[in-house]
Amino acid sequence: MKVGVFDSGVGGLSVVKSLIEHQLFKEIIYYGDTARVPYGTKDPNTVIRYSLEALEFFNNFNIDLLIIACNTVSAYALVELRKRAHYPVVGVIEPGVQALQNAIKQHDASILIIGTRATINSQRYQSTLKGLGYTNLHAIPTGLFVPLVEEGIFEGKILEEMMNYYFDSLSTPDAIILGCTHFPLISTALRDHFGGVPRLIHSGDAIVEYLAKVQGVVSTHQKTNLSLYASENVEGLRKIAKAWLN
Ligand code: DGL
Questions:
Q1: What is the pTM of this model?
Q2: Helix pair 234-245, 13-21: axis angle to 10 deg
Q3: Residue percentage of the chain with pLDDT more than 70
Q4: What's the CA gap between 81 and 92, in Å, rounded?
Q5: Which residues lie below 8 Å from residue 18, measured CB to CB, with a gap of 6+?
Q6: Do the domains spanning 2-91+205-245 and 93-203 agree at the CATH topology level?
Q7: How far apart are CA 113 and CA 163, in angstroms?
Q8: Cβ of residue 119 lying under 6 Å from some atom of ligand 1
Q9: What ligand 1 atom has the least distance to the C-alpha of 179?
């Protein structure tokens, strides 16, 4: 299977990492819209327009499936993308919610959802979880983590300050949905901030489970061939891929 992975920038490599670790695909075509990132501060119509333009990019390849690694795109553009694509399009929100359901059974458990402002404003995680009976939800836009991760800062003082700022009046949650491609890279710092207590829901791992269940995708037991494309600075994307994916 040849799969496309789309993200607003470099963050979707955190999802690629899970796909590669599980050897799910022989070939991954990654496209990051690095010229126009961040999407998380843009309005819904802009996110949809950019996403449909990215779809045209993937039409140059004969992909069997498109994975939307970006939470912001998954929140706003999935319906439009599915209408126009000739192959299945999978986002990260539904898999994330399913992973949360598997991990947390009590409906009054406290769930923290963090993501870009656009993702949080879309209410996609919140309304789906409410519909499933979860009652104790806190959703906080934490967009400042994005440039920090882009700078390669995954721990330390600045990040701690930001966590103090965002989570000031919050008691320790039972689970945190990492509703943004960049946040798996600060998993350790986030868990440490809350004393190691919360279960973390990571889009990459969630999508691996989801693909097995819903699309019947299982390990090929073969190395993955990854091709990287970006709307600008592909060299920068390649550098980050080397660091994040070893
Ligand atoms: N990829 C985006 C997401 O997961 C984060 C970066 C951005 O704002 O574009 O929501």
A1: 0.96
A2: 40
A3: 100
A4: 14
A5: 202, 204, 205, 207, 208
A6: yes
A7: 14
A8: yes
A9: 4
d(CA 152, CA 73): 23
Q: 71 near 119, Cβ under 8 Å?
A: yes
Q: What's the whole-number mean pLDDT along residues 102-119?
A: 98
Instruction: Tell whether ligand 1 has an atom less than 6 A from the beta carbon of residue 146.
Output: yes
161: confidence class by pLDDT, cuts 50, 70, 90 = very high
Q: Any idea what DSSP says for residue 10?
A: S
Mean pLDDT of 214-237: 92
Which residue among the candidates 180, 185, 217, 237 is catalytic per the annotation? 180
Q: What is the pLDDT, as a whole number, of residue 148? A: 93
What is the C-alpha separation between 208 and 70, in angstroms, rounded?
Answer: 15
For residues 146 and 205, the answer to whether their CB atoms sit within 8 Å is no
123 catalytically annotated: no
Q: Which two tokens stand for residue 210?
A: 């989801």
How far is the C-alpha of 8 from the C-alpha of 11, rounded, in Å?
A: 8
Cis omega (within 30 of 0) on the bond before 38? Answer: yes
Cβ–ligand 1 distance for 205 under 6 Å, the answer: no
Domain 2-91+205-245 class, CATH top level? alpha beta
Whether residue 39 has its Cβ less than 6 Å from ligand 1: yes
DSSP annotation of 167 reads: T
| Predicted confidence (pLDDT) per residue in 5-19, tens digit | 999 999 999 999 999
Q: What SS3 class is residue 6? A: strand
Structural domain spans, the chain: 2-91+205-245, 93-203
What CATH number was assigned to the domain covering residues 93-203? 3.40.50.1860
